[in-house]
Write a structure and sequence with these properties.
The complex is a heterodimer of chains A (about 600) and B (about 325). Chain A is α+β, with helices and mostly antiparallel strands. The longest helix of chain A has 17 residues. Chain A starts with a strand and ends with a strand. In chain A, the strands form six sheets. In chain A, strands 1, 2, 3, 10, 11, 12, 13, 14, 15, 18 and 19 form an eleven-stranded mixed sheet that branches. Helices cover about 25% and strands about 20% of the residues of chain A. Chain B has 13 helices and two strands; from the N terminus they run αββαααααααααααα. Chain B is flat. The N and C termini of chain B lie close together (about 5 Å). The chains are: A alpha+beta (about 600), B mainly alpha (about 325). At the A-B interface, α8, α10, α12 and β17 of A face loops of B.
Chain lengths: ~600, ~325
């Protein structure tokens, strides 16, 4: 459940019918939409799957507009931070470029054992893993336990532990302390006792970087500070992945070199090939400059999304250097707690009148965006059960260009007989000031104006939008139209819980931007999370998805894909789950 | 202005200008006649004035003109005018200046943008002149502690980082109902107030200096000795003699304020979307200037021409009203 912080251009789920490898690996989450009507297709784009003929050695060079936020595996919660974490650390499980549906054991030696009541999860770990210098010793279950203790240390500022790991006795508080619900009967076994039958969901969350082993007690001193100082000096951290951080300048430059204690073997890392000897990443570049530079280069990978004009240029003239993979969903959250949108009929009227086709164009057009109809998006398993592209066919989301007559019907139900809002509320719209944020804000404004709402637009940097406005409950922002969501792991729970469950609402850094707290939705999400049978599970989440659409908690804008660029002599391999490059699989040609 | 012929330099220019032969008699010209005679000889200023008049007409008649040209309204998004990547398309028969990223017609937005620029510039200049003339006259006339107080106030305002103030106000007052009970909210009114606030000391200082000189003139002494109250002296004796500097400096503040409006809109603290503003259009166009040149060029050209025209008219007025300062 990471925010999509990149406000540039994503792509549609359209290409799954064509040749986007990432889509093909998803058993139930694929969309079969196509952009052929626009004359655009994903055919002929770069192959971003691993190949047996990739070259070992050399240096991978990356460029981005954005810099990193947290490189402490316990604190990382951002797409490009994950790119670093998945090459420098080793969670218990991982999704791979060829399998983004079932977690593959990484540090674990096999699949997790879930008790029949779903309240106990047991994981066995391999014995061949070692920490990087200066620790050098083998990884034990105590180190994994310590990683969990850190996630519940408030000073580490982990963003997901409370939602995904309902471990008995685990409480978010400052300081590393033992968690009663975790036991380590021997050096290679760790047992989690849960407060609710959550094993099926937790098993998928064991892929998150916070589960990567940290030498027990090693960070205690750093973790006493708030925030923990373990994050601020990443070159002094201890690593379990193929690479170590050699140099780091915040927001500007990062160099990774090989971890001498990492081994590609059956008893250690049997998943990641780690082709490159060195990885050099330059951040903070102008996105247009970075994108053009990558297109013209032989040896660059661009790790964030190119601006639309460069995407167009790449599509038209350098298709082999462009790849497209499913990303997530963008929606305009409507604040359900404060006037005027605490009235569900007013919200439905807004959903009905909005031209959602315009959002698709704001986000880069049909090649990269499909008009959304609900909130379990195409790359999430359970999409088909949630109605696929058509969704649940409520009348207020059935007209992508907007339908004033349907809007009028709901305005009347809301108590506005002339289909125009006559109340005193001024609708505050807050969004990102980077393209396409301003366009999206004006698109939503256009619909609201048709219904007679007075509006104020406030454009701020994307991070400020989340931290000071849309994610700060007391800011009472009415509409957040540039918010996006990508799931933490391929499961509908990860797509719905944080953005739409009332249980996930927190005063600051809140990601339930619509502040939706519908007890029925909360209960449905909770009960669905306890279901182990995949088919039943997806149906239960589809029901929750429908309830959320019925609540009109947000305008579903687009299901979005992500465009990536690479130089002509680089073999970029995409992580379909993180929607970005996997540096342990990418190589030079 | 060009230098006159050698013989005309031998006489006082005002002496030559201020008389006219009518039926063989020498008749004195009125100040207005003198002004107009000098101003119309400045061709560049005349052309600029014509441009400004045309611009004002375009701004006032914007809805009619947009309809006449047959382009869509300034706030009317048109997805069909965007390409498959959602990118704006360039000039065409349907959209002579192209469209922006929402498919809105640039020509219509440039025309409507003139409204915002002129409205903000004229009103803010009007307020600045009123405040500046009032405070400058009072300071210059009364001298002493009042002058010290008001002069320091002008110094403080001039030293104030107005751009930061504008950005701060726009940020702080955009939530809820704004600041001061809704008196300050981001938008046109706040923009006008901020620009006026930053402009009045310039004219205030000029007027103060002129007033300090005028209050010592014989006609003011005469009025004072006849028992005229201070307000009457300021209004009837001093103010009429300040008309020339007021006109000249107003004409110079105007283009500055147009640029100010554009700059604040460029920074995102100007008029609220979707209202068209040249500064805002330039800001929106800047990331993709290399591929969507039309989006920046047309509002940019409109802004440059307008500011240039006001500056040239200002120069012309200065030359016409005060020929001794000939450039």
């Amino acid at each position: 459940m990471r925010l999509i912080r990149r406000a540039l251009i994503p792509l549609i789920a359209a290409g799954c019918a064509i040749a986007v490898a990432a889509c093909g690996s998803s058993s139930s989450g694929n969309t079969s939409t196509s952009s052929s009507s626009s004359g655009l297709s994903h055919a002929g784009l770069a192959n971003t799957k691993p190949s047996s003929s990739q070259r070992t050695g050399g240096t991978l060079n990356l460029v981005t507009a954005e810099g990193w936020e947290h490189l402490d595996p316990g604190a990382s919660y951002f797409q490009i931070d994950y790119v670093v974490e998945y090459s420098t650390q080793s969670p218990l499980y991982t999704y791979t470029p060829t399998n983004s549906v079932t977690p593959t054991p990484l540090v674990a030696s096999g699949p997790p054992q879930i008790s029949s009541d779903g309240k106990t999860v047991t994981v066995h770990i391999k014995s061949g893993w070692h920490f990087s210098p200066p620790v050098n010793r083998a990884v034990t279950s105590k180190d994994v336990e310590f990683a969990f203790e850190r996630m519940f240390n408030a000073n580490v500022q982990n963003g997901y532990a409370g939602g995904y790991f309902p471990i008995v006795g685990a409480k978010l508080a400052p300081g590393n302390r033992p968690i009663p619900g975790i036991s380590t009967p021997n050096k290679t076994t760790i047992v989690f006792h849960l407060t609710k039958p959550f094993g099926a969901t937790m098993a998928k969350a064991l892929t998150l970087p916070g589960t990567a082993a940290i030498p027990a007690g090693y960070t205690d001193k750093a973790d006493k500070s708030s925030p923990s100082t373990w994050d601020s000096k990443p070159t002094t951290q201890v690593f379990t992945g193929p690479y170590m951080i050699k140099s780091y300048t915040p927001g500007q430059q990062l160099t990774l070199v090989r971890n001498p204690n990492w081994k590609h073997s059956a008893n250690a890392d049997s998943v990641r090939p780690a082709y490159a000897d060195k990885i050099v990443w330059n951040a903070g570049l102008d996105p247009t400059v970075a994108a053009n530079k990558t297109l013209d280069s032989t040896n660059l990978l661009m790790a964030d999304t190119p601006p639309a004009p460069v995407l167009k240029k790449a599509y038209e003239s350098k298709k082999k250097q462009l790849s497209i993979a499913p990303l997530g969903i963008y929606y305009a959250a409507l604040n359900t707690q404060v006037p005027p949108f605490n009235n569900v009929n007013l919200r439905k009227a807004v959903l009905a009148v909005e031209n959602r086709n315009a959002y698709a164009l704001d986000r880069g057009g049909k090649l990269v965006a499909t008009v959304a109809t609900h909130f379990v998006y195409p790359e999430v398993p359970g999409f088909k059960e949630a109605g696929g592209n058509a969704g649940f066919k409520q009348d207020f989301v059935s007209h992508p260009s907007g339908d004033h007559s349907v809007a009028c019907k709901y305005m009347k139900l809301a108590g506005y007989p002339h289909c125009k809002y006559t109340g005193s509320a001024n609708v505050l719209i807050v969004g990102s000031n980077a393209a396409p944020g301003p366009q999206e804000m004006q698109t939503v404004q256009s619909g609201l104006t048709q219904l007679g709402f007075k509006t104020t637009i406030k454009a701020v940097p994307q991070q400020t939008m989340y931290s000071k406005f849309c994610g700060y409950v007391k800011a009472h922002v009415n509409v957040c139209p540039t918010a996006g969501w990508i799931e933490d792991f391929p499961d509908p729970y990860a797509a719905l819980f944080v953005p739409f469950s009332g249980e996930a609402i927190v005063p600051i850094n809140n990601s339930n931007w619509g502040v939706l707290n519908d007890p029925k939705v909360n209960k449905q999400i909770d009960s669905a999370a306890a279901i182990t049978n995949q088919s039943e599970r997806f149906k239960a989440f589809a029901k929750a998805d429908k309830m959320i659409v019925d609540d009109a908690a947000a305008i579903p804008e687009v299901w979005s894909d992500n465009a990536e660029l690479e130089g002509s002599k680089v073999r970029g391999v995409l992580d379909p789950w993180n929607d970005d490059w996997n540096l342990s699989f990418s190589s030079t040609k | 202005m060009s230098v006159g012929a050698a013989d005309s330099l031998l006489v006082e220019p005002e002496a030559v200008d201020s008389v006219e032969l009518v039926g063989g008699e020498i008749v004195a010209r009125s100040p207005w006649q003198l002004f107009w005679r000098r101003f119309r000889s400045d061709r560049v200023a005349l052309v600029s004035l014509a441009f400004i008049v045309l611009l004002i007409l375009v701004a006032v008649l914007a809805p009619f003109i947009v309809k006449l040209i047959g382009v869509s309204g300034p706030n009317q998004p048109n997805q069909n005018a965007l390409d498959a990547f959602g990118q704006p398309t360039g000039p065409s028969a349907a959209h002579p200046f192209g469209v922006d990223e929402l498919g809105r017609d640039i020509l219509a937005r440039v025309i409507y943008g003139a409204r915002v620029s002129l409205e903000v510039a004229f009103i803010s200049t009007g307020i600045a002149v009123f405040v500046g003339v009032t405070i400058g006259t009072i300071a210059g006339y009364f001298r002493g502690w009042i002058d010290s107080l008001l002069a320091r106030l002008m110094d403080i305002v001039l030293a104030f980082p107005i751009l930061l103030l504008a950005i701060g106000l726009a940020s702080a007052c955009s939530l809820g109902k704004g600041c001061l009970g809704g008196l300050i909210t981001p938008g046109r009114v706040t923009l006008i107030v901020v620009i006026a606030l930053s402009s009045w000391p310039y004219i205030g200082r000029i007027i103060r200096g002129q007033t300090l000189s005028l209050r010592e003139k014989e006609f003011v002494e005469a009025a004072r000795s006849l028992g005229a109250p201070n307000t009457r002296i300021m209004r009837r004796e001093i103010l009429p003699n300040l008309v020339a500097p007021i006109i000249v400096y107003s004409s110079l503040i105007l283009p500055t304020n147009i640029l100010y409006e554009a700059a604040l809109s460029f920074l995102g603290v100007g008029v609220q979307p979707p209202t068209a503003s040249w500064g805002q259009m330039i800001a929106a166009a800047s990331p993709n200037f290399n591929t969507e040149w039309w989006y920046m060029v047309f509002p940019g050209v409109a802004l440059v021409l307008t500011v240039l025209a006001f500056n040239l008219v200002g120069d012309g007025l200065q030359d016409a009203l005060n020929p001794k300062t000939g450039r």
